[in-house]
Amino acid sequence: MTADLAGGYDLVVFDLDGVVYLIDKPIAGAAEAVGQLRGRKTAVAYATNNASRRAADVAALLTGMGVPAAPAEVLTSAGAAAAVLAEKLPAGSPVLVVGADALRDEVREAGLTPVGEAGDEPVAVVQGYGPDVGWRVLTEASLAVRAGAMWVATNTDRTLPSPRGPLPGNGSLVAVLRTALDRDPDLVVGKPGPALFTTAASQAHAEHPLVVGDRLDTDIRGAVAAGLDSLLVLTGVSGPADLLAADESERPTFVAADLSGLFRPAAEAAVPLKAEDAGGWRVDRDGDTVTLAGAGDPVVALRLLCAATWSGVPLSGITAASDAARELLGAWKL
After folding, report:
1. Residues classed as catalytic
2. What Gene3D superfamilies would the database entry show (predicted)?
3. pLDDT, position 2
4. How far is it, in rounded angstroms, from Cα 33 to Cα 20?
5. CA dihedral sign of residues 256, 259, 264, 267
6. Is the separation of the CB atoms in 216 and 241 below 8 Å?
7. Of 99, 260, 293, 329, whose CB is crowded by the most CB atoms within 10 A?
């Protein structure tokens, strides 16, 4: 058994946006990380809440980035949503699609009839991310739901990571309908629900999977819900301050700056790190306050501080006692 973190697992399930790529640009080291896993015969899967691409398109995009992927290894919230609707509705039922062509294609392939207007009397509305979603289709969806159509959202991620910073995600578009209708969707299919992860594990016949994600509220929360270990990488949406304030339902097993953490000892990524000093850093706790001193790897400091904040110290109770600590807390906006 390999002594590094990844060596303890028989399947690694990657989120995509913020972990492997940003929109359509690969994150440094992602291709090498996946290649190393494949070289040691560790199964790999990809689970994404982004409903704007079909599994085959995602696999082609990844392969084009130098991250080899087969369509069967990709699980999307679009495919999962269409499968759920196909289970609940008679074949051929009209479904109003709010989102990209990929979601429409998934609905059609599932044996249902995609439509675009409330006047088509849809029995369900399925809503996923699409860069061209606008007022007209949201209006039709609102009218259809008011008329009694079931409302299914592929996911509720408020933002999408990008090289320019966070962009509005499907959750922001769902919020438009939630405000107009004064109600929540009848069903949210993707993460933080556990289905994408449990399906990936089942397909790979994995007994001990690891989930790798960049979002606490979807990737990590979904892994916790599925009873799986997880690694948070700091290359996407959730940052150090988010991790320090994380609710118990959103706390990862490990944290690393990027995917290279998969190939270091698990003990170097385990969170929280319950010690007074490590890696050049020292923490001193006094009741509801904690002081960080020294210098070193920022992730080590983060793991040390999680031990304090996860046991009752508020973010406002973190202070610095060295120049490096002050610089680090400032970068984390603490």
Report:
1. 15, 17
2. HAD superfamily/HAD-like
3. 54
4. 10
5. positive
6. no
7. 99
Q: Which two tokens stand for residue 276?
A: 């007074």
Query: What's the pLDDT tens digit per position in 80-133?
Result: 999 999 999 999 999 999 999 999 999 999 999 999 999 999 999 999 999 999
**CATH code of the domain in which 320 resides:** 3.30.300.290
Q: How far apart are CA 194 and CA 218, in angstroms?
A: 10
Check if the beta carbon of residue 102 is closer than 8 Å to that of residue 77. Answer: no
What is the number of helices (H) and of strands (E) in the chain?
11, 19
The strand order across the sheet containing 94-98 reads 113-115, 94-98, 124-127, 150-153, 187-188
**Based on the structure, what is the number of domains in the chain?**
3
Q: Tell me the pTM.
A: 0.88
The per-residue pLDDT for range 144-187, each reduced to its tens digit, is 999 999 999 999 999 988 888 889 999 999 999 999 999 999 99
Instruction: Give yes or no: residues 156 and 230 share one domain.
Output: no
Cβ–Cβ under 8 Å, residues 236 and 18: yes
The size of the chain, in residues, is 334
| Cα–Cα distance measured from residue 226 to residue 228, given in angstroms and rounded to the nearest whole number | 6
Full domain range(s) for residue 173: 78-188
Among the listed residues 13, 10, 73, the one whose alpha carbon sits nearest the alpha carbon of residue 194:
13
Same domain, residue pair 245 and 311:
no
Closest CA to 12 of 271, 219, 273: 219
Provide the pLDDT for residue 24.
78
Q: Distance between CA 10 and CA 6 in Å, rounded?
A: 8
pLDDT digits (tens, 9 = 90+) for 202-218: 999 999 999 999 999 99
171/250 same-domain check: no
Provide Rg for the chain, Cα atoms: 21
